[in-house]
Amino acid sequence: MWKWIRIPKGIALLAFLLPWMTVSCSDQTLVEASGFGLAFGRVTAMGQAAQASDGASLNIWLILALLAIAGGLVLLFTRGREAAKLVLGTSVAALALIFFGTYRYSKDAILAEAAKNGSNGNMDQAALAMIQVHWEIGYWLALLSLIAAAVMAWLVMSGKEADAEAKMRSLAKDAADRMAAKDDPPPTP
Asked: Which of 132, 141, 163, 172 is deepest in the core (most CB within 10 A)?
């Protein structure tokens, strides 16, 4: 199982290339961004690529999450099973960093920021209430991959790796047998 942890870690890193977030209002897309776009301040606004010119648009939490994932991958390729605790740590750290880094894009955070900036009119509040934030496939894939990597590292670390691997092989064999039984025609009398 140790050698397979590279797969979810790699998927988590590649998930940053996929769409992560869409902000829309009245079913009209206003902003789209990938994980890398959110981390480095590059988004697509109303169909036009946009990048903030100041460093404030950098999302340090997501950049640190990228570094944690990459660091976990380096550990997987350079160290043996003794790095299981570190790989578990990088997976959990990346999960936490993603949650911290994406909170600023939640609808609650957007509404709070708008209220802080003096948007107190009823019309503005009505417009803000129509804003929808949708988390896309890249975001969910990154989270699920990191959870899978953390579980796999924990199994290796706890010594339950062989039991879990045997159970997974048994389940896969049973599923393959059921699929083969469905594909075989019934015997003719």
From this structure: 141
